[in-house]
């Protein structure tokens, strides 16, 4: 025969995730930390990796790393689960709380992976769009209404705080009200919380339906290694364990993440620099003709600019890669620039000033 049957119907119209990662002098498109780990830390990592037996399967649950994370958060091991990047845990969320006949509440524009995972698991999606003329704040009233009452269909929701790619964090009082208004699982995606200085950690004890997602990829300079984790109620974590891939976090990644986590205080200076550079970039962007930056609590700035697609191209031609959202639904005319080193940020601002003049 030589031919192949069609894949599952749900794949029709789906596009593979494309980070639009292109080589450039200044990589300012993927919300990574512009600083790689220090040489000293790299030496510690090398020593730790050398001790890893490569012929043995890793600890499936990464218990040593779990214990470090649990202790730092004042929790027990059974309230922590480690995954192959936050991405794996987001997929596990859809596997465990979604599925046919189940409903996910989404607040677009947001991280596109949430919706893709829902579609891949045949989960129904209810959209409550963010308020474009209020800097993409959550439509709090509509969300609370959608989850409240015995007739609500919503089984789970995911709220990025700060929200990628728009920038605002979700107000604590709103998240608190949401947790109290529903028994749906509420995942607060804190992938960038180090840059907003706000966490829902204090609300875990009182809310069995709260899961907090974190990652090593951003503040901790470890996007290349793929480690993320969730914090939640032990019963919820146990459900996640049923759907996860047994050995998704390899032994080398576990060893590297342990070293990074034990030395996490080292990253504080870099985090502070990113926050202050973010403010500098936003205020310079505000001064450029036609450019409108959205407020950001994270390590990027989303901005609208006339002829955004052409602007993206011209930035790329001078070696600066930013993320093009100019054709994304709800984000038309915008680009997102990740905070880089001060030199990269200067180069970006200088180039953009020349382009818009
Ligand atoms: N959540 C959000 C909002 C993100 O932007 C990202 C990274 N793009 C992730 C989760 C997942 O990151 P990782 O898989 O690298 O941990």
Describe the 3D structure.
This protein has helices at residues 39-50, 63-72, 85-97, 112-120, 140-147, 172-181, 193-196, 234-243, 251-262, 268-286, 308-317, 342-356; strands at residues 26-27, 80-83, 103-106, 124-127, 156-160, 185-189, 210-215, 228-231, 292-293, 300-304, 320-321, 323-324, 334-338. It is an alpha/beta fold and 357 residues long. A seven-stranded mixed β-sheet has the order 2-8-7-6-5-3-4, with helices on both faces. Strands 9-10-13-12 form a four-stranded antiparallel β-sheet. Strands 1-11 form a two-stranded parallel ribbon. Helix 2 packs parallel to helix 9 and helix 3 packs across helix 8 (234-243). The chain is globular, with a radius of gyration of 21 Å. The structure holds 4'-deoxy-4'-aminopyridoxal-5'-phosphate. 4'-deoxy-4'-aminopyridoxal-5'-phosphate binds next to helix 3. The site of 4'-deoxy-4'-aminopyridoxal-5'-phosphate has 12 residues, from helix 3.
How do the helices and strands line up, and which of them pair or pack?
Blueprint: E1 26-27, H1 39-50, H2 63-72, E2 80-83, H3 85-97, E3 103-106, H4 112-120, E4 124-127, H5 140-147, E5 156-160, H6 172-181, E6 185-189, H7 193-196, E7 210-215, E8 228-231, H8 234-243, H9 251-262, H10 268-286, E9 292-293, E10 300-304, H11 308-317, E11 320-321, E12 323-324, E13 334-338, H12 342-356
Parallel strand pairs: 1-11, 3-4, 3-5, 5-6, 6-7
Antiparallel strand pairs: 2-8, 7-8, 9-10, 10-13, 12-13
Helix pairs in contact: 1-9, 2-9, 3-4, 3-8, 5-6
């Amino acid at each position: 025969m030589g031919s192949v049957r069609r894949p599952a119907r749900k794949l029709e119209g789906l596009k593979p995730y494309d980070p639009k990662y292109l080589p450039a002098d200044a990589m300012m498109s993927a919300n990574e930390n512009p600083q790689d780990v220090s040489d000293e830390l790299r030496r510690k990592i090398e020593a730790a990796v050398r001790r890893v037996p490569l012929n043995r399967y890793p600890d499936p649950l990464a218990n040593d790393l779990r214990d470090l994370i649990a202790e730092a958060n004042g929790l027990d091991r059974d309230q922590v689960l480690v995954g192959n990047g936050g991405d794996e845990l987001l997929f596990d969320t859809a596997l465990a709380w979604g599925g046919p006949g189940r409903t996910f509440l989404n607040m677009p524009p947001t991280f596109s992976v949430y919706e893709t995972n829902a579609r891949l698991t045949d989960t129904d999606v209810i959209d409550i769009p963010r308020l474009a003329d209020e800097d993409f704040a959550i439509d709090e009233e509509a969300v609370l209404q959608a989850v409240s009452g015995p007739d609500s269909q919503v089984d789970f929701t995911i709220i990025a705080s700060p929200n990628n790619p728009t920038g605002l964090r979700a107000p604590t009082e709103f998240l608190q009200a949401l947790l109290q208004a529903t028994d749906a699982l509420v995942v607060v995606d804190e992938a960038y919380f180090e840059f907003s200085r706000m966490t829902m950690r204090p609300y875990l004890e009182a809310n069995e339906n709260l899961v907090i997602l974190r990652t090593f990829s951003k503040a901790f300079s470890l996007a290349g290694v793929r480690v993320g984790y969730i914090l939640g109620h032990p019963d919820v974590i146990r459900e996640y364990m049923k759907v996860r891939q047994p050995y998704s976090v390899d032994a080398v990644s576990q060893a590297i993440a342990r070293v990074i986590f034990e030395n996490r205080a080292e990253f504080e200076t870099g985090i502070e620099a990113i926050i202050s550079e973010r403010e500098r970039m936003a205020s310079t962007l505000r001064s450029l003709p036609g450019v409108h930056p959205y407020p950001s609590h994270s390590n990027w700035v989303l901005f609208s600019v006339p002829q955004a697609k052409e602007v993206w191209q011209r930035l790329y031609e001078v070696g600066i890669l930013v993320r093009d959202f100019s054709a994304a639904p709800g984000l038309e005319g915008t680009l997102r620039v990740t905070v880089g080193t001060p030199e990269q940020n200067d180069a970006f601002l200088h180039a953009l000033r020349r382009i818009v003049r």
